[in-house]
# Entry
Amino acid sequence: MAAALFLILAATSVGAVLGMILSRNQAYSALWLVLAFAALGGLFGLLDAPFIAAVQIIIYAGAIMVLFIFVIMMIPLSTALPPERRKATLFLSIILAVVLAAEMAVSLWAMLRGRETAGPGGLGSTKALGRLLFGDFIYPFEITSLLIMAALVGAIVLAKKRDKA
# Structure
């Protein structure tokens, strides 16, 4: 039963990501991404990490996607990229695809050799996550909160400028 559920959630996640990438409408892309986040939350649930599964669905599929929708609504994205930006975007896409393929190859190689590629055992519990987040990773956690605050202030400034125009 778990294997069938895994296959369904994995196929849903991959299909939703492909739908997000291939969709021409930004709002539809955001909705595809919500589906991918929800399927990923289900996969975390199958890995016996209920807290991370709930956080994945509540935070990413809920709160972060609301921010994405606000950005989509605030910024007019209907204009096409100029040709020089298209070339730069294509070049960056190829580089990122190569990096992703290399990461996948290394993970697959390590898995086939029987090495552990996942995090430490028990990471799905709130106690272990809290110790890691507020112990070893306190500085990245705080820097991330500052970046989110800066993005929020930037969004407010952009919205205020648009109202005056």
Notes: The longest helix spans residues 83-112.
